[in-house]
C-alpha cells in the first residue's frame, strides 16, 4: 500500500475517519447513559482532521480551562488519545453521576471524589471509543491508565504535540454534544495515532 498522505486524503479516507468518529461517539454515549442511569441524546458528532495548533481554538482557546484525560495506546497501533471537556461540562457530568443539584455546585472546584468520578468517566468514554475502533479494524488496541489533568487547553494539548510533532502534526478530532440543551455537555475526543498506525487503520479497512 502506498504511504498515506494526510495532507491530500481522498473522500473515501475521510469517510472512514468520520465513520470511526460516529461509531465511537455512539458507543461513548451509550456507556455514559448506562453510567448515570439516564437516557442521553447525542447530536451527530463533528469529525475533522486538524493540525495540533488548531485544536485549542476548537475547545475555546489556548487559555480556556478544560478537563483532559490522556491515555497512551499500545498493541497493533500506537499513539495517544485524549478526551477533553470544558469545566462546566465536566461539572454537569459529575453532578449527574453523583445525583447532586445541577445548579448549586456550578462554580465550585472539584473535590477529590469529583476528580475520581471524572477519571472513571474519562476511562469509560475513552474505552468505548477504543472498543469501537478495535472492533471496526479487528486490531488489538490497549491503553495506559488514564492521566487526568485540569489546566488550560494549550498546556494540556502541548503534551501530544511535543510527543508526536516529530512524526506528524495531524490529529483526528471528534466533537460530540450530549444531553439536553440547558445542560449540554461538549466533549472533544482526540485520537493521535502515529503515521504508521494511520496506515494500519486504513489498510485494515481495505483502503
The whole-angstrom Rg is: 17 Å
What count of structural domains? 1
Q: Count of DSSP E strands?
A: 7
CATH-assigned homologous superfamily = CheC-like
Please report the number of helical segments: 6
- Any idea of the CATH class? Alpha Beta
Low-confidence stretches: none
Q: Which CATH architecture would you pick?
A: 3-Layer(aba) Sandwich
The dominant shape is: globular
CATH topology: Chemotaxis protein chec
Give the helices and strands as they follow along the chain.
HEHEEHHEEHEEH
Please report which band the strand proportion falls in: under 5%, 5-15%, 15-25%, 25-35%, 35-45% or over 45%: 25-35%
Keywords: Chemotaxis, Hydrolase
Domain Chemotaxis phosphatase CheX-like: 69-148
Protein name: Chemotaxis protein CheC
GO molecular function, one term: hydrolase activity
